[in-house]
Amino acid sequence: MEINGVEIEDTFAEGFPIKVARVTITAITEHWAMEAAREATGFGTSVIMCPAEAGIERILSVEETPDGRPGVDVLICNMGYKNLENSLLSRIGQCILTAPTTAAFNGMPKAEKQFAIGKKLEYFGDGYQKGAECDDRKLCALPIMSGEFLVEESFGAVDGIAGGNFYIQGENQTSALTAAEVAVDAIKRVQGTITPFPGGIVASGSKVGSRYKFLKASTNEKVCPTLKKEGVCTLPEEINAGYEIVINGVSREAIEEAMRVGIRAACTVPGVLRISAGNFDGKLGPHLFNLHEILG
Amino acid sequence: MEINGVEIEDTFAEGFPIKVARVTITAITEHWAMEAAREATGFGTSVIMCPAEAGIERILSVEETPDGRPGVDVLICNMGYKNLENSLLSRIGQCILTAPTTAAFNGMPKAEKQFAIGKKLEYFGDGYQKGAECDDRKLCALPIMSGEFLVEESFGAVDGIAGGNFYIQGENQTSALTAAEVAVDAIKRVQGTITPFPGGIVASGSKVGSRYKFLKASTNEKVCPTLKKEGVCTLPEEINAGYEIVINGVSREAIEEAMRVGIRAACTVPGVLRISAGNFDGKLGPHLFNLHEILG
Amino acid sequence: MEINGVEIEDTFAEGFPIKVARVTITAITEHWAMEAAREATGFGTSVIMCPAEAGIERILSVEETPDGRPGVDVLICNMGYKNLENSLLSRIGQCILTAPTTAAFNGMPKAEKQFAIGKKLEYFGDGYQKGAECDDRKLCALPIMSGEFLVEESFGAVDGIAGGNFYIQGENQTSALTAAEVAVDAIKRVQGTITPFPGGIVASGSKVGSRYKFLKASTNEKVCPTLKKEGVCTLPEEINAGYEIVINGVSREAIEEAMRVGIRAACTVPGVLRISAGNFDGKLGPHLFNLHEILG
Amino acid sequence: MEINGVEIEDTFAEGFPIKVARVTITAITEHWAMEAAREATGFGTSVIMCPAEAGIERILSVEETPDGRPGVDVLICNMGYKNLENSLLSRIGQCILTAPTTAAFNGMPKAEKQFAIGKKLEYFGDGYQKGAECDDRKLCALPIMSGEFLVEESFGAVDGIAGGNFYIQGENQTSALTAAEVAVDAIKRVQGTITPFPGGIVASGSKVGSRYKFLKASTNEKVCPTLKKEGVCTLPEEINAGYEIVINGVSREAIEEAMRVGIRAACTVPGVLRISAGNFDGKLGPHLFNLHEILG
After folding, report:
1. How far is D196 from chain C (nearest CA, A)?
2. Cα separations in angstroms, C12 against B87, B189, C242
3. Which residues of C touch B (CB under 8 A)?
4. Which of A157, A192, A211 is the last residue in one of the domains?
């Protein structure tokens, strides 16, 4: 299979189940909503050593937010609901409450699973907190130096999928990297997904496990071009660099759509030679995404 | 005391000791160094509930970095060396190693305290890691999908100060916020300091302790303008909003310089009425910064 | 009439007819399409002394562009077709042809009026130019240092409207300016419109004519708050600053929608007191936009 | 000669004399100074068909500007003083006066040649303009909707040089483009210079003249890789794309420094194979910049 002359390998991505919450951040301007979103989703690439996987889902117009202000939706993901509750408490409490002019709304008000985040954060008001309402939502209003911080009482979460992925392999580093940037820009428009790694890109795609027992993940040597001489790397001669795009999403459909638009976008960049994907014999998880089926 | 017609209150900021490490991130372009830096310093506002306090110190020219590529210096801060070592391992391993085209260098090679970060991260190479050198520094080279990731064997840290601060109080929210933005932009030029909160600004300045025993910090009600009616807020009538700038630094001198340029910059914005600072009867820490002395 | 507590004055904006062309710029990444778009639309605020009025209409996804690459639509406006043709030639030739990796497509292929822009620019190829096709469009391919520049043979233009506008008046400069930023961000989502002034905002709203015969436009002294003492400024006491948003569009409907979302967005910002608009007894033009009707 | 394994061709750049003025733009924040600067320097790549060559020279700290606010220096260049005066009048009057919160200061107060720009623009005040002073400079104060616009009475200009240049040639488009970005970022730090093309980069480097008599410049076919088959392009087989960096500056020394740091920076990017430069047998101008001498 080829797109724009780029080979699409007959392979599949392997993902795993994760819990996903959405926080709608509003602020006086889009700029300040985005600053809060960046801080709240930072240090959030992989649950291997980060306290959560997190990213910016999309920018909201003033017509789309509960309070009619500019906004940004972020997704926060953890392996279990207990960890996810902790992530919501600490990331909203430390990165959104503290950010100028923000409010934090429940981005999944209809989800079955709901956490009483606002009801816990409100103690920061030290007795001066009050109830409030906006757009039929129950909020807590905390007095702060610049006015009041509004946070919804509950935040919902759903079963999602982490680790949707594809590899972009090119004739050199800059062609693969440029294509990765184009892919991430395209995926930004797909609701329900994030690309949690730095700038949306993984430079050091890993395999499950390692020769060192204390390591859960290690470099995927078969796709490391500097190991061609040793015969360890099995990449064809003309491929000299690759990047991985990892996608978390609220549903299988969202991830498939992100993979579809991301791969198509990557294939527009000169020097891209092949699209592949990462799978690990089921050691990572049960969610499989076949490239040819998704792009067919 | 007045600057540009703005009252400088006769008060002081109260800070506390913290351990500080510097990581020099280089990449193929300034853009990608910055993307890595943002991810690596995110979720890093306050050690109350964040795993570290972190921020971007400054952008480096190609002449200033060990490998001659564009770069960014970040500071990472924790209450003790053990926590700081963990922060370095996880933030370099998850946010810099994974970022496209980056390398990570020791930003404090002459510090007495050094952590063997590279020597631990190199196991990710799964046996294919090698030693390397650059600019007389000992590095580990890990094969990855896009080439090699270079990370220095050791990263140094020093005793620094957290919690340097000042308050910007204005006639309304937008004047105080604009002044806070101007102050943060000015402080970006002061080497040895970071402003770790979202966009460099704290909207919800806190006091030490709370009426709830389980809370270490709570809203500083005396400076919360919505509590004026209750008589709880002691701000003068004309002040209707405030923001706090919190500064961490590698030395007392660096924080003083940051406070000086930040306060002067804030006082250029129309609608700013007063500069104050946060102190807590010594409950927070021993480092005091008197506004009049610093600006005198 | 009030929105969110902000008075909407019972007045109207006065606009004038203008010719409008759309250029679709594509590039290897959204970043480079945007760089070309900024250069091509710069020095383009008012035809009083600029060679055109120009601005960025919207960012296009990879699915929306003729060549499947990231793109940006820009609008270029002049008082007559002759001037507009010159603007297209010089702005495409100097700012898009010269920009890295770009192509330039006709953004109004169905317009009755078409200019042979590509057919004139192709002489830059110095005999090495060729015909090409993409998405059923006729293109010229010019060999350049980095490959080929593709430009469509024809570019279309329509009768549009310039000078759609509203005033945002606030208690101080920062509140009015922040609201102007929010309004411009909201208008960015309205297809068929641009806000051609710097950052989308006019700081120095003018009236038609002047006491000096050589000047076509001069400051609108009635809304200049520093002239309150002289009795020249007729603003109420509590209004201390204002900004104007000027909107050009391809149709009356597009401008009305931009005014609607822009005004609503501006009214979410604390400190905004009144929305007004600029009109000049018909001296500027025949297109009138009544605020109450648009918002009703 | 080689830098980092990249061949530096034994050739030289050819530039030509131009008149250069500097405008110091200040604003309430760096963000708004930059917005004004972008608009004021847009549509300013080449005097062949642009009304000026213009660009952002550097960002100024609050300590460096006449009014103590954030600022940006821009350079505006024309072939003669008459055209330059027109450019200053129209670009300051239409792009800085109209931008929110800005002031415009003379960036070359000691130059022999001075234009009475402020004294002409002040008529926009329609009789309400006044004199003012700041930092020992004579200013005009014009009442506008958001307060007062301050503009210095005079703006100075000097004899400068345009067309300083070098070519970055790489194994493919993305490697050459990435290197061009790195070079431009490095040159941003060299005071006294600008790179006036889109994003600082020229994609369509030209030669002087054409087979068509009406064209002053046309594509430089010898360095166009798609013309290799015809034998017209003389590039070696392994070079498949190139970009040109064009530098204007206030002095020969400034341009040499920009070329030095720009070339060195470009040579850090993988896939860059050769640095060359554009010269035209003296048809363009008398200023020659030998690569080996500059880098020696």
Report:
1. 9
2. 59, 46, 16
3. 171-175, 177-178, 269-271
4. A157
